[in-house]
Amino acid sequence: MSPASTGASTIVGAAPSVPVVDSRMAPGGPGYRRMSFALFLAGVATFALLYSTQALLPLISGEFGVAASEASWTVAAATGGLALFVLPMSALSERFGRRTVMTASLAVAVTVGLLVPFAPNLTALVVLRAVQGAALAGLPASATAYLAEEVRPKALVTAIGLFVAGNSVGGMSGRVITGWVAQEWGWRVAIGVIGVIAVACAVAFRLLLPAPRHFKPGSLRPRVLARTVRAHLANPLLCRLYAIGALFMTVFGGVYTVIGYRLTEAPFGLPQGVIGSIFLVYLVGTVSASTAGRLVGRLGRRGALYASGATTATGLLLSLAGSLPLVLLGLVLITGGFFAGHAVASSAVSKTATQGRAQASALYQSAYYIGSSAGSTIGAIAFHAGGWAGTVGVGLLAVLGVVTITVFGTRAARLQRQQLATAA
């Protein structure tokens, strides 16, 4: 029988070639839709719980008799707890698996979420929120690491964008629902409703998320973890991406912590339910995050960051107007620019880190939520000192930081290309 008839190689002694099949998930492939929807729901639960008190700050201030800067700690404590614990939780995910850690984190967070409405005073409320934020720390870094391992590289930006879109839906629905529920039954019932919704999301997430196929357990040894973290912090590109994430979130945290106070005051004087509905602009973030992949395809990563920064800055300036439609347009631009920039930066981290992806993502998330805590606190202090213009000033400084870092990165990349061309 001839070689041709058997399908064997015609070269004597040569092994037949075996096509390499990428078994990772891709759009349209098996498991991709289930995975996308599961992580979308995890994003919904994370942001709904994390920012459940943000739209309710004027009511919390009224009940406990505190200023905006004090009530804002119910937000800053949650995001600060997440920032502090995201790195240790990412280490646990390297050892025990992404899905296991995400499931446990959601379970603890929703349990605490059902206790938050019963906080007897502001101190207890802040402590419970800090614990809740620490529990949620297992979600963001583990989710992006899961995607980096289980999704094909060309689909990674889109997949992470869908997870970020879930964040935006969670942030929006949490604030809209709490606004209207609180107007009728108070802020405690409103937070309880969010807790129940988060329980449903957590159960569906666990049932839908496919088991990981490409996860390889790592070490829990502190020395190994420290070495991985040092390597990431020694990478200039990763450090720039961490700073960009923190600065974008400084803008977002400040704006959405204070906006409720501004809209209750003259010349707007809006009721709590209407203020909660303002957060429907988060839908813009859902769209901008999920289309970040196409934006990068057209403009490149740095071009997409420039566009996101310019959009955010334009929105901040428009929000200074005394006209409600212009303020709303400003919020739309701020939200769209922020979520696009966040999706671009976080996906770039996952692509840049070839080892210790969970730690790389954890460092990004830590910087990101430190930015949120800083924005919530500094934005509230600036509002107390200089009104809305003070909060906008803080935001514009943060956007200037994003642009400056991106310009530096552009020049560094150009210099590297010139050096490579010279060496060649």
Say how many strands there are: 0
Mean pLDDT: 84
By CATH, the superfamily comes out as: MFS general substrate transporter like domains
Determine the number of helices (DSSP H or I, runs of at least 4 residues).
17
Q: What is the structural class? A: mainly alpha
Into which percentage range does the β-strand content fall? under 5%
Shape: globular
Uncertain runs are 1-12
SSE order in H/E notation? HHHHHHHHHHHHHHHHH
| Radius of gyration using CA atoms only | 23 Å
Query: How many structurally independent domains?
Result: 1
Largest β-sheet summary: none
Name given to the CATH architecture: Up-down Bundle
Describe the structure.
The structure is a single chain. The chain has a single domain, classed as Growth Hormone, Chain: A (Up-down Bundle). It is built from 17 helices and no strands. The protein has 424 residues and is mainly α. Helix content is 79%, strand content 0%. It is globular. The termini are far apart.
Give the SSE map.
Layout: H1 3-6, H2 32-50, H3 57-64, H4 68-71, H5 73-96, H6 98-115, H7 122-136, H8 140-150, H9 156-185, H10 187-208, H11 222-233, H12 236-264, H13 272-277, H14 282-290, H15 292-318, H16 324-352, H17 357-423
Quick structural gist:
The chain has 424 residues and is mostly helical. 79% of the residues lie in helices and 0% in strands.
